[in-house]
Design a protein that fits this description.
The protein is of the alpha+beta class and 445 residues long. It has helices at residues 9-17, 19-37, 41-73, 94-122, 127-132, 148-162, 206-221, 244-257, 275-281, 284-301, 335-343, 354-363, 399-408, 413-425, 441-444; strands at residues 165-168, 180-186, 189-195, 232-239, 259-264, 268-274, 310-314, 346-353, 367-370, 384-390, 393-398, 433-438. It has 2 domains: 4-228, no CATH class; 239-444, no CATH class. The longest helix is centred in the first third of the chain and has 33 residues, at 41-73. It starts with 8 loop residues before the first helix and ends with a helix.
């Protein structure tokens, strides 16, 4: 399914106004609230069981809609065992079923983003674990998957016999190495154990086990990460700081005004838009015009208008697009606002100038050069944005790191720059280090 912003406007509006999509926001608010109230193994077990039921239901409904659309395209009638159509559009039109299938694909991703929030929470918001266990291709939908029954039985067995919570990796979008993680309570903390679940006792899983062992070693002792892109995890003892409080402030004002821009330290301009409030106040054209005007004012307040190279990232349509990006469900925002970000009924974008970024690196003793061509519209995740140098050593900032940390997470620029200087001073980081800061859990918990 294409990105929402790449669809024709009429099609995007059909998706956002579909009953399944609109009902989903209330479900997400309740799920985020329930997740934040989970305190122990039983809470997590019950929460996952409820979420799994919802995910399987929407995946099965999507498969049924696609089947009906295919039959209609072949000139056949709607079968008697067709799923119940949720919209009021003509049931004999295959486009009605295709639209409902597309909506289900979005809702499926939205629900699995809550599972990502569950994963971050039970792993104590340790970004290193998410990075290490995300380096396989995701297997796709769970509904109809061979081995699903064995995985569900595994979860139930461990709970009934050991009172252990077992996290199903396929329910998430961020965990793709190993089938499950069991958590053993030790005092007030948990010990985590990875599992491969075999429905067929004769099936060999040597390749999966090798990757699992590599991931475990990467987390424990900084060994090389599994997967095609080389790299190592590098924990830093620098406390993580962000300016996400300004994101809360901007959305509080946008809830009243429709759109709000603010200046963020580090040469950044933030614009938050509450789509629901915006459409209450203005037409679509007016909302776009007011957003552009608010952005211009925020850029001026940040003093980055026509200063250096500008890069920006936007929050919409990012749900489960990147397995290592913190899910909206754990952002320090209200459940209602998190749900709006997940469903694209609210969005924000952040613009940053290259000049303050390179100045921050200079302040910690690094020379830097901007590598991204001016005016480039589309940037690939692995594309190099900036290179920093100290003596003969060089470290590269790639777009995925800039988009995630400096733009969407609003990381404190001096904190990030100090972390970069620490990386370049070490000899054990490899060419593509994945840094993590101290006390990151305090940002998300």
């Amino acid at each position: 399914m294409p990105l929402l912003k790449d669809m024709p406007l009429e099609r995007a509006n059909q998706v956002l106004r579909h009953p399944i999509h609109q009902e989903g926001i209330g479900t997400l608010v309740r799920l985020i609230t329930a997740l934040r109230q989970c305190r122990g193994a039983e809470d997590y077990y019950q929460f996952q069981q409820d979420l799994l039921t919802r995910v399987l239901a929407v995946q099965e409904h999507r498969a049924g809609c696609r089947r009906v659309a295919s039959l209609l395209r072949q000139g056949k009638a709607v079968p008697v065992d067709a799923p119940e159509l949720r919209s009021s559009d003509p049931s004999a039109n295959p486009e009605t079923w295709e639209l409902e299938a597309d909506v289900c694909e979005r809702v499926d991703r939205q629900l699995r983003s809550i599972a990502d929030g569950l994963a971050w929470r039970v792993f104590n918001y340790d970004r290193r674990v998410i990075i290490a266990l995300s380096r396989n291709q995701h297997p796709g939908p769970m509904a109809g998957k061979k081995g699903l029954a064995a995985e569900r039985a595994f979860v139930i067995k461990w709970w009934r016999e050991e009172r252990r919570f077992v996290l199903l990796h396929d329910l998430t979008s961020c965990l793709s190495i190993g089938d499950a993680t069991s958590f053993k309570e030790v005092g007030n903390e948990f010990e985590a154990y990875l599992h491969e679940i075999k429905s067929d006792p004769d099936r060999t899983v040597s390749r999966q086990l090798r990757r699992q062992r590599m991931a475990e070693e990467a987390i424990r002792s900084g060994g090389p990460l599994p997967g095609n892109l080389p790299g190592r995890l590098v924990p830093l003892d620098i406390p993580y700081k962000t300016h996400l409080n300004l994101l809360r402030t901007a959305f509080d004002l946008a809830h009243e005004r429709g759109v709000q821009g603010v200046k963020v330290p580090g040469g950044r301009a933030l614009v938050a838009t509450d789509m629901v409030r915006g459409y209450d106040l203005w037409s679509e054209r007016e909302l776009l015009d007011r957003t552009a005007a608010e952005h211009l004012q925020a850029v001026k307040r940040a003093r980055i208008l026509d200063v250096g190279h500008l890069a920006y990232a936007r929050s919409d349509d990012l749900v489960v697009r990147s397995p290592t990006m913190p899910p909206w469900a754990i952002y320090p925002l209200t459940p209602a606002l998190c749900a709006k970000l997940i469903t694209d009924y609210a969005m924000y974008f952040v613009t940053m100038s290259s000049e303050p970024l390179m100045a921050a690196l200079h302040d910690v003793g690094l020379a830097a050069e901007w590598a991204l061509p001016r005016g480039q519209e589309t940037v690939e995740p692995d594309q190099v944005v900036l290179r920093a140098h100290k003596g003969t050593r060089t470290i590269e900032l790639r777009w995925a790191e800039m988009q995630r940390r400096l733009l969407l997470e609003l990381a404190d620029l001096p904190t990030w720059a100090e972390g970069t200087a620490r990386l370049i001073d070490r000899n054990d980081t490899g060419r593509h280090p994945w840094q993590s800061f101290g006390d990151e859990w305090k940002v998300w918990a």
